[in-house]
Amino acid sequence: MTLTPLLSASFAIQLHAAAAIAAFLVGVWQLSGPKGTGTHRALGYLWVTAMAVVAVSSFWIQDLKQWYGFSWIHLISIYVLATLPLAVMAARRGHVRRHRFHMIGMFVGALVIAGAFTLLPGRIMHQVVFGG
Asked: What is the tens place of the pLDDT at every residue in 20-52?
């Protein structure tokens, strides 16, 4: 494992990776911990902020130029930016099932599945985790 490829990358990629790692770690904590507590709410806002940074920063990462500099991964970012406020509103209104559905969907889709694609050969995170 080496951080050199990530430290040599653009600021947008570094910010994106840092926010994604933070969101993943906070998300694991949130999903495994007790719900409805003050800690859950505070960490939830931290998670929402990290996910927003992940989504917004992705628009400055255009390595997989498929459509005018963007790729299918950017559709996930649009999904996240549209779903974050819906999930927060659902929690505020007491719609726990809807809140859970949105949050787990974003965690699995935007962090786990999309994150797994960053480990493919030729990608920066593949170099970070598996070396040269």
From this structure: 999 999 999 999 999 999 999 999 999 999 999
- Residue 74 half-sphere exposure toward CB, CA atoms < 13 A: 16
* pLDDT, tens digit (0-9, with 9 covering 90-100), for 71-85: 778 889 999 999 999
- Where on the phi/psi map is residue 131: left (φ > 0), alpha (ψ -120 to 50), or beta? left
Q: Which residues pair with 67 in a beta bridge?
A: 70
The residue to which tokens 């990462």 are assigned: 61
**Among the ranges given (27-31, 100-104, 113-117), the one the predictor scored with the smallest mean pLDDT:** 113-117
CB 40 within 8 A of CB 33: yes
3-state secondary structure of 70: strand
Beta-carbon contacts of 99 under 8 Å, excluding residues fewer than 6 positions away, are 87, 90, 91
Contact 31, 43 (CB under 8 A): no
Contact 48, 22 (CB under 8 A): no
Burial (CB count within 10 angstroms: exposed 0-12, middle 13-18, buried 19+), residue 16: buried
